[in-house]
What we know:
27% of the residues lie in helices and 38% in strands. By secondary structure, it is an alpha+beta fold. The protein has one domain: START domain (Alpha-D-Glucose-1,6-Bisphosphate, Chain A, domain 4, 2-Layer Sandwich). It has an 8-stranded antiparallel β-sheet. The longest helix has 19 residues, at 141-159. It is globular.
Amino acid sequence: MAAKSSLDLDSDxxxxxxxxxxxxxxxxxxxxxxxxxxxxxxxxPNGFRTTTLSFDMRPGGVWRFVMHGPDGRDYQNRITYEExxxxxxxxxxxxxxxxxxxVQFRQSITFEDLGGRTRIVWRGDFPSAxxxxxxxxxxxxxxxxxxxxxxxxxxxAAQR
Length: 160
């Protein structure tokens, strides 16, 4: 059975770090990140839907998407990929313009092979501790990450 998500907000005041283990091989967990059709099933906190506008998963490539909140609000997002190393690591920058949510951070996701199981470490680094605090307070980024990892676990389990 997959372990529950864990969240670390204490070891670095500028970071949100989530960890989760999956009862699925690393290639399958990584693949959930590589196609907007997959992402539409699990990306975002509970109650959110995601619509992809463009998707180019390579260093320098951009993923433009809208997260549709359960309250009816749309959240414009832009991710610019810095590093994509299948099936080991994805690094990207979130935000970066007036046309997207005012949240900027660098995200790294590592995929550790546990012999048929996978552990991901999902680390968001913010420009300052104050900015991390703001994003947690205004957007619920800490709870949202845990919910997103749970949705990913459910999606991956259904794909097995």
